[in-house]
Input
Amino acid sequence: MSEFLVPAGTGESELTEKRSRFLGHLLPVETEEEARAFLNEIRRKYHDARHNCWCYRIHGGPERFSDDGEPQGSAGMPMLEVFRKENVENCVCVVTRYFGGVLLGTGGLSRAYSQAAKDALLDAGTVQTGLWCEICFYCPYGMLDRYKNELAGFGALLGEFDYAAEVLIRAIIPETEAPVLADRIRDLSGGRINPQVSGPFLKSI
Output
């Protein structure tokens, strides 16, 4: 399963370096449009700041960054590298700088911007996300425990059962395990049970 991390929520940070203030703002997003909207919101809120540098990563989509007037390579890219290194996607981060009158140099700026991004990520926390499928099938009551054990062995998460003439089992399972599990259920039932598999979809756990 292709797994990655996403922010668990919003995150903020603040640090001061040689009288310059760096304010980090992090938001979980799912689309580039959401990332751009957040960027514009921060720009309006901190319109009096010297710089609003930013980056975002969208799963299956683009990566973007901007130094917003800082020396090339000193802000947006160091911030982006924080999220690449931590394997965090579906996030947008903006670091606002209020200039304190002392030049920091490219190295100093890079360290300050990346630290502000890292601290905002730490404040937000992360959760693991990956591709999952839903699997559902009817089984006889006498085989319920056996199939529950099989599902657990494949790392499936059980949903609610529907009890009728037979038991309708619903579960979600990592995408890569879904076809293997479906074959296993067919084998156990001698071909009588044909599980329905749908997905994949993204899920955080």
